[in-house]
Amino acid sequence: MRAFRAAVEAHDMDAVEALLADDVVFSSPVVFKPYRGKAVTAAILRAVERVFEDFRYERVIGEADGRDHALLFAARVDDREISGCDFLHLDASGRIAELTVMVRPLSGAQALQAAMAAQFERIAEEAQERQDARAASAD
Amino acid sequence: MRAFRAAVEAHDMDAVEALLADDVVFSSPVVFKPYRGKAVTAAILRAVERVFEDFRYERVIGEADGRDHALLFAARVDDREISGCDFLHLDASGRIAELTVMVRPLSGAQALQAAMAAQFERIAEEAQERQDARAASAD
């Protein structure tokens, strides 16, 4: 959890990606259906990092050595203030097996949806590049 | 935190209200500006209890004797599935000083907004009744 927080705060998205389990399940604040796998989750998190401004963690809930953590944050998307939370559920090896994000208020969630929609093509490209690279390295 | 969870699960809204600090700050999933005070917060929570169907807590994060807790829940509003979280911050006497709720996905937050808007008059009436009762008892 500390490693995830430190990586996000350093805007080090490679380090964030390295903390994800291969079969991570990512539940977004906007879409009901979860995304599955490291490639698409990493691509989405890179887009989120581009979209959020003035991002800062404000409170952490969960035991330091536990498997579940809630990291409350504040940020802006365009001119909308957003409060949100990253929920991390770690697997036995300490990788992030489930990542769920919620945000409030409704105006902030709508601004986030619009900003993420504008990132759609780049997300799809980056997810594909990651999957191709992984398939190549598995050959 | 256990008392709050038990009260919510028993649909005992008087017990929920008794756990709130007089100057509780309630941040809703829909509206940016927080609500302040026990009367309006209790009235809103009663409306939420009428609006959510099949409500169940699914995960609790936070140390049992700590001041901060995250209670993840699932529910339905009309035909929309909602995931959400109650964040409790307790004061030194164990009362709930801050209660923040977030929900996902966007379609669920929108359904919740519509359902809560339909409760507006009853919320305003119940909040007023509580304030009047408190003013009378303080005379």
UniProtKB/TrEMBL annotation, chains A, B:
Organism from which the protein derives: Streptomyces coelicolor (strain ATCC BAA-471 / A3(2) / M145)
Residues of the SnoaL-like domain: 2-98
Entry-linked SUPFAM superfamilies: NTF2-like
Protein name, entry field: SnoaL-like domain-containing protein
InterPro entries assigned: NTF2-like_dom_sf, SnoaL-like
